[in-house]
Amino acid sequence: MRWRATGRRRAMCGTVIAPPSANERRNPHMPPPQPVTAPERLPAARMRKNTRAAASSSSVRAPVSAPRVMPRHIAVCRLRRQTAIRFGHEARSGTPSMRRLIGIGLPALVLLAALMATAWLIQTRPRVEAKPPEETVWPVETVAVRPASHRPEILLFGEIVASREAELRALVAGQVVETSPALLEGAAVKADALVVAIDPFEYRATLEERRAQLVEARARTAEIEARRKAEVDALAWDRRQLELNERDANRKTELFGKGTGTEKALDDARLAMMRQRVVVEGRANAVTALVAQLDQQRAAIERMAVGVRRAERDLENTRLTAPFDGILREIQVAVGKRLAIGDRVAILADPAGYEARVFLPDADYGRLTAAGDALEGRSAKLVWRTGELTEAVSAEIARIGPRISAGTGGVNLYARLAAGPASQRLRPGAFVELRLPDRKYDAAVRLPAAALYAGGTVYVVAEGRLQARAVELLARDGEHVLVKGALAEGERALVTRLTRIGPGLRVREPAT
Q1: Final residue of a structural domain among 421, 437, 453
Q2: Distance (Å, rounded) from C-alpha 113 to C-alpha 115?
Q3: 177: domain range?
Q4: What are phi and psi of 89, to 5 degrees?
Q5: Residue 116 domain-assigned?
Q6: How many CB atoms lie within 10 A of CB 481?
Q7: Are 454 and 464 in contact (CB under 8 A)?
């Protein structure tokens, strides 16, 4: 099978070697065939005939001749050829032995080489002698402990508000026919100065009509009064006539009783008396009615007088004026605009009544009030920052808010600003700072905020090492804190922040 698969001639080392015969394959001690050069090659048919003849003759045992000596280069070429044929056939046939040899041997060689290299590196590594660790010395900064009386400042934030502010609204309806030249955003107006004028025609006509009605009512009252007086006078005459009729009837009755008078005369006298009595009663009722009419007329006059005064006021309200000196903002009218009653015209703020409204937390409020000092009237300092410009204004706590806010947990303070150029430049809504003096702390130590560590601990430097001191935080003063505790005067307190800190840590202060 091997020679059938690779039976074709191969050119090796510049010669052509014929494949070995069957006897040669069976007898490995048989000398190799002589190479045949390219010009001496026989035809294929003759070569096959010679091969069969040699095979048939090989069945007869012949004496073995002495081995022929082959040149060295021919033997090397034949060995190379046989090796190439063998390994090429095994590779093409895919024998498991070759694949196993390659798959196991190559990784084993790589692993062996790596182990040898590792062992060589371990044996040749440099030897470093271990040194004892040195203690780290940390450079720090310290300040001297000086107990004293301190009064820190509480930094509060708020805004400027107007203590007196009025919304100017139209008091009557109508069309705007005139406005003040100062009706501009941020313009200042004086008290009683015209702001807006509304068309007064309708209101002037109404006033004249009310006045005419009042005059008419008064004339009607005079007429009724005259009639009443006439009725009163007539009533007096009727009553005198009634007295005469009563006297005449009494006289006729006496005469009739004596028998000198007639019954008809008595009846006529009595009839006249009764008629006059009816007239008197009617006259008295008329006087009473006239008195009632007079009362009604007087009430109508009062009502009409009120209408006249209302019309006069409406006419005056057509000219809207400033109630006090102030600054206008939020202008919402112009000439030609029709206003209804209650429409906003502008807002007038009193610049002399500007205040700073700041928020004071519960903790600070409780601490300040617990000291017994009143907050009202306490001096403060207001700071207004506008870009790179910082202005300070003196202020005074005017009042405290009426309630503590449950949502924010604090109370509002209102500080009145002192008069001055800076306070006049302020406007409502400006963000300001208020520095309010806190309560006084005796025997307190003022340190930078970096000196206070968690748990109320301050570290001091003693003989080049740190020692912990327990302190109580009294208050904060900007970037400083006020503490009180086991700190002796003259000790050096650590002000450098260290991530890993503890008692006994070795430190070094800078040379002074």
Answers
A1: 437
A2: 5
A3: 165-196+322-349
A4: -70, -40
A5: no
A6: 22
A7: no
